[in-house]
Write a structure and sequence with these properties.
heterodimer, A: mainly alpha, 2 domains, 9 helices, 76% helix, 0% strand, globular, B: alpha/beta, Rossmann fold, six-stranded mixed sheet, four-stranded antiparallel sheet
Chain lengths: 203, 229
Amino acid sequence: MTTTLLGSHRPGTTLLHRLPAGAKLATFLVVGVVVVAVRGPVSALAFLVGAVGLAVWSGMPLRAALRSLRGILVMAVLLAAYQSWQHGWPRAVESVGDLVTLVLLATVLTVTTPVDEILDTVTRALRPFRRVGVDADQVALAFALTIRAIPTTIEIADETLDAALARGLERDPRARLTPVVIRVVAHARATGDALHARGLGDD
Amino acid sequence: MSRIELEQVTVRVPTVDGDLRILEETSLTLTERRVALIGPNGSGKSTLARLVNGLVGATTGRVLVDGLDVAREGRAVRRRVGFAFTDPAAQLVMPTAAEDVALSLRRTHRDKAERRRAALEILAGYGLEGLGDRSVHGLSGGQRQLLALAGVLATGPDILVADEPTTLLDLANSRRIGDLLFSLPQQLVLVTHDLDLAARCDRALVVDGGRVVFDGPAESAVQHYRTTA
């Protein structure tokens, strides 16, 4: 069972759920650029508060949200420590705030939007580029599969950690990392075979 | 029925110790409605099955499906040949049951609402009604295998190649999937360790050590395998 909300749709009736996928994608894209472009710790904290507000509004269960952000939060703490040491606390607040904001926005998008809708939206948006050789269906399929790959990769990492724990190897980085890489590559190949088996991705 | 032909096909895989021969030179024609491939683990039967829709490429020789060369006309062949894997989890690529079937319908149903309606109808046809919005992770093993088959069959193939589709299932689900496979109008190429299922086919090939060591009526092939295994 997947433990992450990022990449997992949760049906609901909030305004965020009802908004068209295209509007959400475009808005989040613009907001993402603004979050990265606007500098300073105050704005980073303001964006973070806004993202938390959106997450609450989307109806995502907060406990599950915190659990799914666990990995990112660990990375954020490490990043904050490094940035404080190298560039001072204002840069640390900005970097970590921006990172968590972007992950939260991506989670809100995937929680409130079925992958099928994102697939349709990307296909429609890219259709005009067919003239210059862009295969809209292929790009949209790749986009959808990338979203699907996030919870799968986290699930594989969790299972690998359990396997390492079961053998008392939880402190061995090889036992924790190597199987993840191998299984993620194997999963990618299996997904390719699965699409191939249905004749998809050939067009 | 379709015509599957293997002409002097071999499959070799390069390894550090030289080429590993997975399938020795094999020539055969399959025109029967139900064909079983049986044999021990690692015998080459899955490789033989995977050749039919190009999941594995022939090192030498050629594979034809209704006269279409799998290596040259792969796209056309894959539209005729669907493939079901042992582990349905490897085959389900979308988050919910309805979205997964809808993915197979994208080519034939451009309208989203119509596609979803068709996907739900297909799910109902396979006894998965009411599960359209269920996460594929939340389905039982039997439901996942039914969904995987529904996803493949929704593309409308003429031939279904099923690689040990009942191996991971309990007895009840194994029977359910077996009965479903034998009720399909498609030509079926079934890789299986379930000899009762194999015996229901019109023809069976016993594969061992990368060679077809027996080819004939299913009952006789199963008998041969039982006595030589």
